[in-house]
Amino acid sequence: MNDSTEDKGWWTRLSGGLKRTSSSLGSSITALVSHRPLEPATLDALEDELVRADLGQELAARIVNELGAGRYPQGLSPEEVKGVLASEIEKALAPVAKPLELTKQPFVILVAGVNGSGKTTTIGKLAARLRAQGKSVMLVAGDTFRAAAIDQLKIWGERTGAAVMAREPGADAASLAFDAVTAAKAQGVEVVLVDTAGRLQNRAELMGELEKMVRVMRKVEPTAPHAVLLVLDATIGQNALSQVEIFGKIAGVTGLVMTKLDGTARGGILVAIASRFGLPVHFIGVGEGVDDLAPFTARDFSRALVGLNS
After folding, report:
1. pTM score of the predicted model
2. What is the pLDDT of residues 140-164, one digit of tens each?
3. Is 183 exposed, middle or buried (0-12, 13-18, 19+ CB in 10 A)?
4. Which residues contact 19 (CB under 8 A, 6 or more apart)?
5. Which helix (H) or strand (E) holds 52?
């Protein structure tokens, strides 16, 4: 987004979306460290607060080491502490802030995530972004067990001008994926977004279904899928870590999309996930609107997370 007005609008949404996190983080830190010497007991308490904010033990320890290195004998102001926090968080996030690059045509994206994570809505928002960039898009209703997900994708197709490939509820997801990729190749579609089932209760069944989808798609397009995006709901906090682990094994996740950052005080979980898994974070969502999904940038996120101005 080069346009400064658009940038400003996104910053407003991002900082507003992360307000719960930055407020809770800011108030606890301010109470601890404002203008007092950073003694060991204070630093220990600060480390506990940072872990409680879901930033992860490793990063919390690094931040505390940075603050306790003797450079601040008089203590720090709240803004100075936030500056150090933002800087260390940005360092942790910079390696994973990577755009999603469309390197093939059709570029097939498998979208995974548990039911309720905002997966289908995220597909719709991604379609809207891609259509705004002038790309042709096909949406594939591969979550064939949920009639609501199929209907939702059809609505997004109408809204964005994307083609939709869907079957009746209960249809075979793999044969749908096969037909979709075949049609996309024949029609010269640039991006194919494939929704998938999100039932984690039976992992073996889910894994079997995803493996079958991939296997049959490769009969048409040997390199598909070109990306496997995992959609994560920020409000679930620490549970997001286990979801990355499970879907990493089941679906071979290549990148992440974090949603619902506006509904939680647990935005720090993205930092813990980045530190632990090192997977690219392509997009984040901070609201229900179609424009509330945007490419992930380490600096903006870090500053919004701790409540600094852009």
Report:
1. 0.93
2. 999 998 999 999 999 999 999 999 9
3. middle
4. 307
5. helix 40-52
